[in-house]
Every structure is written in structure tokens, then in C-alpha cells.
Amino acid sequence: MRQIWMTRKGGPEVLEVREVARPEPGPGEVRVRVEAAGVNFADVMMRRGLYPDAPKLPAVAGYEVAGTIDAVGRGVEAGREGRPVVAMTNFVGYSEYVCVPEALAWERPAGVTAVAAAAVPVNYLTAWQMLRVMAPPGEGETVLVHSAAGGVGQAAIQLAKMAGARVLGTASPAKHEGLRAAGLEAVFDSRDEQFSSAVLEATGGVGADVVLEPRNGKWIMESYRSLAKCGRLVLFGFSSAAVGSGSGTLSALRTLARVPWLRINPISLMNDNKSMAGVNLGRMWDQQQRTGRWMDAILGLVADGTLTPVIDAVLPFEEAAEAHRRLEERRNVGKVVLVPDPEEETA
Known about the structure:
Blueprint: E1 2-6, E2 15-19, E3 29-39, H1 41-47, E4 59-60, E5 64-72, E6 84-88, E7 97-101, E8 105-107, H2 114-118, H3 121-134, E9 142-145, H4 151-162, E10 166-171, H5 176-181, E11 186-189, H6 196-202, E12 208-213, H7 219-225, E13 227-235, H8 249-257, H9 266-272, E14 275-278, H10 288-303, E15 311-316, H11 320-328, E16 335-339
Parallel strand pairs: 9-10, 9-12, 10-11, 12-13, 13-14, 15-16
Antiparallel strand pairs: 1-2, 1-4, 3-5, 3-7, 3-16, 5-6, 6-8
Helix pairs in contact: 3-4, 3-10
């Protein structure tokens, strides 16, 4: 079978399709013949050597796939073979076949394509943890979604609107019209380093009740200033460290140096009547029962059309480098998905 390997740290050119042996499912595992694999910004960070939880390179990225179970390990219900599923995998998702614990392979709802299903787990679980668990908005409250055109941003917009919240966003100017068409009340330039004044103006001087910040570093303080009283700031990424061909250890250190370590502290949180939370789905692997319940709820909403994954591009394995470029250059609106070419599949 084929896998997409990150041969070393560097740009998208380090991605390489390799032939490897097809894995066999162990006890309690199912093997999924992959029809689509999601691409996430964490994969870009891994390739740049900026993701601390990633395996040592060379390695295979990928957290989510959709396809069909074609084999099961000991202890797994034999009747699961042949069923369409969406699954989460701790890396190695850029593969034609993956083996995952049975509990991490969910039945794919009828009528949901593999491409749409592969766009669900990482983006929607992250958005769900933020907006249903860590900082749920009340009806009529205001949610500011940074990187609103990205995969998590698009999922967050849908969940916030479900809750009856007003939604504001940031993105590059070329994406503003599309975001307004998607129902955002105001959209700001994601490069504006003093956006809090625009947020305050758009909210009548009140501020946002919930702010979702994926960039980290210098952006944290400005997002904090955007909060209303009793506002909640949720950090869920470190994307400002991956800013193009120069990304690496130095860009990570610069981002860390710009974190307001002293300006936001227990005393300032109390005095300002604000709160902060952090979300890292990659550190939730020991919470499978909890995240499984979230996933069941999300898939139910996808099945009835309440949630609709936004797909930016569907690319073959051979164009994995272009998939990464779209994310790294912030050109995507929604999810980028990789698909193997079944005609070239080998054992």
C-alpha cells in the first residue's frame, strides 16, 4: 500500500509517497481501507518540526480518515467488516490502509460521503470542545472566531450559530465576502495587530463573550482585550509559529517570547472578570469515552444536515505537497482532503 511520508523537516517538498506493507489489525482493532484522509494545520506544524507530540521524522502524519472496514482483529465483531466508517488515528492517517481501535471507528451516516466524513473529526471535535464544553456561548452572545475560513473556524461558525450566538470573524481580506455570506455579522483583517478596537466598535463597546484564538504569541493579549466582562478566551493552536519557508525553531521561540506571560495572570483574570481556557485535541487520546460521546452527537448533526463540513479542496496523494501549501499559505476556505487513487493501489 502507499503512504505519504515526511522524510525530514522542511517545506512541502519533503512529502513523499512510499510503498509499505499493509498493516494487520491487532486485538480490538479494525482495519480501514481509506477513501479520504483529512489534512490539518497540526500536520504542517509536524512537518516544520514544531509539533512536540509528533513522532520523530521520518514519519507519517494524519489524524482522521474515512473509508470501509475490510478486516478486524481478535475480539471485534465480525459483522463490522464491509461497513463504512469515519475513524481517528494517532498519526499515520495519510495511508491507504490504517488500523485503529474499534472504539475510534464510528459508523458513517448514510448519505455522508467519505470526503465529507474525513473533514469531521479533528475540526468538529475541536470546535465542540471549545463551544460546547469549555466556553459555551448563550443565545445572543457574541463569538469571535479567528482564522474563520479555516477548517476549525468553519466548524466553530456552525456550532456558534446553532447556539444562537452572533458570530464575528477574522480572515485575510480576500475571504471576507464569503464569510459575510456565511452569516458573519462582521469580519476583520487577520493581519491587524490592533483588532480589539474594531471588535469593541462592532459590539457597541461591550466586547465579545467568547474568543477562539489559534495563533498564540502576540495575538493572545489583543484577543484578551476584545473580551467583554465575563468573557472567555480559548486558545487552541500555535499557528503563528508556522509562517512560511522560514518556519522552524526560531519562529517558535519568537512566538513563545510574545506570549503575555506576566500580563495575564490569576490576579488580572479576577480583576478583569475574564477567563482563559486551552484546547489540544491531540492530548485527549486518554479521554476516548468522552470524545466518543461528542463524536456521536456531531455525526448525528451531520447526518440530519444541521452541520455541513465545508470542503476546500480534494487532492490525490501525489499532490500532498499542494495540500500542505494551501494550509501553510492560508489559501484554504474549509477542509483540505487527500484521496488515494484506487487504480494504483498495491498490496
